[in-house]
Specification:
Number of domains: 2
Order of helices and strands: HHEEHEEEEHEEHHEHHEEHHHH
Shape: globular
Distance between the termini: 44 Å
Helix content: 40-55%
Number of helices: 12
Radius of gyration: 23 Å
Oligomer: single chain
Strand content: 15-25%
Length: 315
């Protein structure tokens, strides 16, 4: 995999970034932002990477999120060496019954398919990213001032019109879907990074990025549990295959990792590579945690093997 090119700046340029692009950052946040910009080889002056600070006036909830523009995303992806952009336009699921001022085109979801090269076979396979309108569109509550001078919610909601969600709804939901695909196929490069479109709801609700992601993760898993989609898994029990609902996949695999012999983890993961890739494409947040658990089990197997090769004292 090709290394990223570092983007280094002069002290004067660093000062300019602090006064403009990163003016909302405190010193620690700014230092972190600059380190990420250098590590990813992105240029903040042309908007490839942007810091976004949530809950600026609440120290307990304050959080900076790193935003990568679409240009920056594609720069990182191209450097990976195993990426090809989508060969077909985004696919949209539409429902005319959903057309309201909160969803002017009745969009249910958008799905984007990127291409990733398998390092073993060199074959290319599609990586899907899906984004649902109800999870990303920046819907905000209307507020009014009561007779007592205090603000209260009117019970009405509106689609935030300060950005492009009203003018270009398909583009915005497709950008969210593309970032989902990038995180699914290239988690090491894109975990913890977000497209600005993904954070528009957070800006409206004044939530931290972690709260938005956790909310999305929970909704995805709940939807999947009741859905028709499933993933075929080989459990090593008489070579039987089982179709597991993808909402149960995370829990079932986690339990299997606790019971399987550590020496068999690598073989199991390789045998279920297609199913794991499918899960990563559908649920990148859960898939990253599952990837960590699989790697931890493999490291334990390696450590156990090494311990067996150490000669006993006096032997």
């Amino acid at each position: 995999m090709q290394a990223l090119t570092r983007f280094d700046m002069t002290p004067r340029q660093v000062t300019l970034v602090k006064a403009t692009v990163a003016k909302d950052c405190n010193d620690d946040e700014f230092s972190l932002f600059m380190e990420v910009a250098r590590a990813k080889g992105l240029d903040p002056f042309i908007g490839q990477i942007i810091p976004m600070v949530f809950s600026k006036n609440d120290a307990a909830k304050r959080k900076m999120t790193i935003i990568i523009s679409r240009d920056g995303q594609r720069v990182i992806a191209q450097r990976c060496g195993d990426y090809r952009p989508a060969s077909k336009p985004p696919q949209y699921e539409m429902d005319k019954a959903l057309i309201t001022p909160l969803n002017p085109q009745g969009i249910v979801s958008a799905t984007v398919y990127l291409w990733k090269q398998d390092q073993k076979s060199n074959e290319w396979y599609e990586v899907a990213g899906q984004a649902f309108w109800e999870e990303f569109a920046p819907i905000k509550d209307e507020w009014a001032k009561g007779d007592n001078g205090k603000n209260y919610k009117t019970g009405k909601q509106t689609l935030d019109d300060s950005g492009n969600w009203c003018r270009m709804p398909r583009l915005m939901i497709a950008k969210c879907a593309e970032m989902q695909a990038l995180r699914a196929g290239w988690p090491e490069q894109f975990t913890g990074l977000y497209d600005e479109a993904e954070m528009d709801r957070a800006k409206v609700l004044d939530l931290s990025a972690s709260e938005v992601v956790e909310h999305e993760r929970q909704e995805n898993r709940l939807r999947a549990i009741g859905g028709k989609d499933s993933i075929t898994v080989w459990w090593e029990e008489g070579f039987a295959l089982e179709n597991v609902p993808d909402g149960q996949f995370f829990d079932r695999v986690s339990e299997h990792l606790r019971t399987i012999h550590p020496a068999n983890v690598a073989k199991w993961a390789d045998s279920n590579r297609a199913g794991l890739q499918m899960f990563w494409a559908r649920h990148p947040g859960d898939a990253l945690e599952l990837k960590k658990r699989i790697e931890a089990a493999q490291h334990k197997a390696a450590a156990d093997k090494e311990a067996l090769t150490v000669p006993l004292a006096g032997g």
